[in-house]
Write a structure and sequence with these properties.
Number of strands: 0
Helix content: over 70%
Shape: elongated
Largest sheet: none
Distance between the termini: 13 Å
Structural class: mainly alpha
Order of helices and strands: HH
Number of domains: 1
Length: 66
Amino acid sequence: MTPGILKMWISFAGIAAMFLSLLMIYLSRFKLKGVLKNIFAVFAYLFMIISGLIIFYVVFSGPVPE
């Protein structure tokens, strides 16, 4: 697997984590109550931080030399 393709899959993982965090934040704010609401919120914000770090890495690591 070339470095460029690997970087593409890493960025897809970041996008998926961001989408998952979006769904979890929606659920925790509008659909859930009690302890489950807090658990979903914590995991959602953790996914948001992780996805932000992944996207930051992909964007600022520069182009892949061939």
